[in-house]
Amino acid sequence: MNEASSRLARKKRQSLLGSKCYAELWKEKSPCENCVTGMVFVTGKPQQTIVWDSDSEGKRFCIEKFAFPILNNDGKVEYAVEIFRDITERKLLEEEREQQRLELGKRIREIRHAYEELKSLQNQLLQAEKMASIGLLASSLAHELDTPLTTISGYCELLSEEIKDDNLLGRIKTISEQISRCQKTIRNMLEFSRKSNLEKTQHNIRGLINNTLSVVEHRLLIHKIKLHKNFDEQTPSLFVDGNQIQQVILNLVNNSVDALPHGGDVFVETRVNKKTSSVEIIFEDNGIGIPVENQKHIFTPFFTTKETGKGTGLGLSICKNIITNHNGKIELENRVGGGTRFIISLPA
After folding, report:
1. What contacts 110, CB < 8 A, 6 or more positions away?
2. How many domains are there within the chain?
3. Integer angstrom CA distances of residue 257 from 38, 208, 220
């Protein structure tokens, strides 16, 4: 035992000779669990370990322990040389560097998160500018087209009263129907571009949904579509613009009808989400569904998956605007088994 070992034990070197190292150096009553010297006698090979301990003043220190075998003439371990090295400063420096690395990683994640938020905000601003431009264009087109269409429609009515030829009357009827379709498109364009003020009042949301669904019950019946309703009895009243929410409900249900040309099922459900303090209205159908590549575009103005002449591509965009104005959100989910699933969340 050298002088460094005696300093570690805080005793004179002579008094330590013949003593147990675990008792004098490590203040243990039995051999250390990770005793390198003991392992040398078991394995016959050099051993190494690192241990942390505290001195009498409670100050932590770190010791690196090595043990090497000394063999006799028969090749068996007769003695072991144990070497201690104080590596406290090195380990503390490593710990400090590790802490700095973790802190740096945290800062990098925070910067990356801030960058993503800024990027998202920039995209939202660009989208808002784009929507404003589209809204202005839609409004201008709607006003430009509305007057001549109204004039043509009026002349069609006059001709219908004067002409007696059934063949010509059929053609005039076709013209009137196409004008009505154009005017419906114009109304949608005006609705999309209009920034109407919300007229919010307290509504029993279950009653509001039921009243709205009664409007389309006949259409569902004609198309052999079964309506399933499941309303949470705990659903609270909501402070909303009833007319606008009804417009959203009608749009989503009518979309489901269009997706079920051969009949099927439509599901309407309400539930309370306590985690987000919101009421969720879920619309599902088992229709043809929306292709994955189109799902990210469905709320984009004028985007439609319907056949030419059967949709303006403004319905879902208007729905999103209405729900957003209510501080809510509308999302599309893939429905297990096919079809579509829209979830509307409104603050309770």
Report:
1. none
2. 3
3. 81, 20, 7
Host domain of residue 177: 96-193
Is 35 a residue whose pLDDT tops 70?
yes
DSSP letter assigned to residue 313: S
Average pLDDT over residues 13-18: 66
Distant-in-sequence, close-in-space partners of 264: CB < 8 Å, separation ≥ 6 = 224, 225, 226, 285, 286, 287, 339
Task: Please indicate, yes or no, whether residues 341 and 206 belong to a single structural domain of this protein.
Answer: yes
pLDDT digits (tens, 9 = 90+) for 77-125: 888 888 888 888 899 999 899 999 999 999 999 888 888 888 877 776 6
Prediction pTM value: 0.49
d(CA 326, CA 209): 17
91 occurs within a structural domain: no
Closest CA to 141 of 197, 183, 195, 178: 183
pLDDT at 57 over 90: no
Residue pair 315/336 in contact by the 8 Å Cβ criterion: no
